[in-house]
Write a structure and sequence with these properties.
By secondary structure, the protein is of the alpha/beta class. The chain has helices at residues 5-10, 26-35, 42-52, 75-88, 111-126, 129-132, 186-197, 216-225, 240-243, 249-258, 260-266, 281-287, 347-360, 375-382, 394-406, 416-424, 446-459, 466-480; strands spanning 64-69, 102-108, 135-138, 142-145, 149-155, 165-166, 168-172, 204-209, 233-238, 275-277, 304-308, 317-327, 330-341, 365-368, 386-389, 410-411, 425-429, 435-439.
Length: 488
């Protein structure tokens, strides 16, 4: 009789030392029994009902399993165990052609994160002499086994998983993959995986993550499959303390005291209700002028500009240039140019290039992030451009940009990275009730910030603020002094 995955956890010659018979792994054994359709004890059945919202324990293995579990709950160790078990204890000779290899990808947002999961896999293989003998070749990102299976690191890309025969797939921290606002939406990656697993009997897609916003494929799986008996897609939701009782309760209590909404997701495994998308995709796309890359300067047009400075090592440095037009008695803000220089770069060289662009549009003053310190003011001044720190934080700029987008009172160039960043912005409700708008964890908003600053300045109404107010005051001061108005 073949060994079940729970048998391997109790066998000291296999993984018994890594998963001792202690309380810390009790709930995980219940999950594995549910995932693989194994008989359950009464205690395991109770845990199953508690964390799945279902009543009848399954008798068949799950086709997909989605783990919504708090941080430090043991997800990575269990995912590594599942990967090693499926790679080493199952035969795929009936689905692999001569010379063909089956692939078990460990997929994460980047290679560094996926390599962390790979280290757990290698630790289990090396810790068992019998399994270590199966390794025919290894690199930092892959392990080839003599049975024709390769466990390897993949990044979250729907293109990178095509062309493989996938015997199982592990999706790490899937709640933090980019959703519909990305060039690699999480749903497209999952949709690309399923056909690659279709010919493999018993292939398992295992997604592990602490939850985040109420969107994306993890939220979809939870909403569609949690609490549904006999569903082949298993969703298991549990807080950190339920899956790993060894985590210090004081750490969790302090996290709740500091930020309850964040802690409820990080440790309580609850999807956040305080985070929403900033702008609807339809609104952003309606403002895009197809095939427009950049508008040239037009004599007599008053342009404004906003720059998001960067030191050149981590973030991009970006520049947005815009002007306003009156159409049907409405002010329409037009983003004429958007520039981005990605790191690494020389800040001095970028400032010089940006100043050349500003001068080509007749702009002698640019507004920018006030948190960049004094160096932007000094470096722009060297090239004859006045740098004025913005009065508003970027969250307020985004808030003022939103009605321009939703009412169609702005025009955007056909710039995919800009669109991606605008769609990736998130609105968070703080503990005091005030909303803040910023990029998602691990994402960027350098282009969005420059675009928002320029568009809001161009479209400012009589309750003007920021750059337009500054321009007006300078203009009025020049007229009062009998001097010609400042060059805009």
């Amino acid at each position: 009789m073949s060994m079940t995955i729970i048998d391997t956890m109790t066998d000291l010659a296999l993984f018994g030392a890594a998963f001792p018979q202690t309380e810390s792994w009790t709930a995980w054994r219940a999950f594995l029994a549910a995932c693989f359709g194994l008989p359950m004890t009464n205690e395991q059945a109770a845990l199953y009902r508690q964390h799945t919202g279902r009543q009848t324990p399954p008798t068949n293995p799950a086709r997909e399993a989605w783990l919504v579990v708090g941080r430090r709950g043991g997800k990575s160790q269990i995912a590594a165990l599942v990967a090693v078990y499926l790679a080493c204890f199952r035969s795929y000779g009936d689905v692999l052609a001569p010379g063909e290899r089956g692939t078990l990808p460990l997929i994460a947002t980047d290679r560094r994160q996926a390599r962390t999961l790979m280290r757990y896999v290698v630790g289990l293989l090396d810790g068992c002499p019998m399994l270590a003998q199966l390794i025919s070749n290894r690199t930092a990102e892959s392990v080839e086994l003599t049975n024709g299976i390769t466990i390897e690191v993949h990044t979250a890309s729907f293109r990178s998983v095509r062309g493989y025969t996938i015997v199982a797939a592990i999706l790490d921290e899937v709640a933090f993959w980019r959703s519909d606002d990305s060039a690699n939406p999480d749903r497209e990656i999952v949709n690309a995986l399923r056909p690659a697993m279709a010919t493999v009997r018993g292939a398992l897609l295992l997604a592990i993550s602490s939850p985040y916003a109420r969107r994306g494929c993890l939220w979809d799986a939870y909403r569609q499959h949690h609490g549904r008996d006999a569903d082949p897609v298993l969703v298991w939701q549990a807080p950190t303390s339920a899956m790993n009782p060894t985590v210090d309760e004081r750490v969790i209590a302090e996290a709740y005291a500091a930020d309850e909404a964040s802690a409820a997701a990080e440790y309580g495994a609850e999807f956040r209700r305080d985070i929403e998308s900033f702008a609807p995709r339809e609104a952003v796309e309606a403002c895009v002028i197809p095939d427009r890359r950049e508008l040239p300067p037009v004599a007599g047009t008053a342009y404004v500009a906003f720059v998001d400075p960067s030191g050149g090592s981590a973030d991009s440095m970006t520049l947005g240039i815009a002007h306003a037009e009156t159409r049907n008695e409405q002010t329409v803000a037009v983003l004429d140019a958007i520039r981005e220089v990605k790191p690494p770069f020389s800040p001095e060289a970028v400032v010089r290039d940006f100043c050349d662009v500003l001068k080509s549009y007749g702009i002698s003053t640019v507004m920018g992030d006030r948190y960049a310190g004094e160096w932007p003011r000094e470096r722009f001044s060297v090239h004859g451009i006045t740098y004025e720190p913005a009065e508003q934080p970027k969250s307020d700029l985004y808030r003022e940009l939103l009605p321009l987008l939703t009412s169609g009172r702005c025009e955007l160039p056909d710039h995919q990275r800009l669109h991606t960043q605008l769609l990736g912005l998130e609105r968070r409700t703080a503990r005091g009730g005030r909303d803040s708008i910023d990029h998602a964890p691990g994402a960027h908003d350098d282009l969005a910030n420059a675009a928002a600053g320029a568009l809001v300045a161009a479209a400012s109404t009589p309750r003007e603020s920021g750059l337009v107010r500054w321009y007006r005051l300078q203009h009025e001061a020049a007229l009062a002094a009998g001097a010609p108005p400042r060059d805009r």
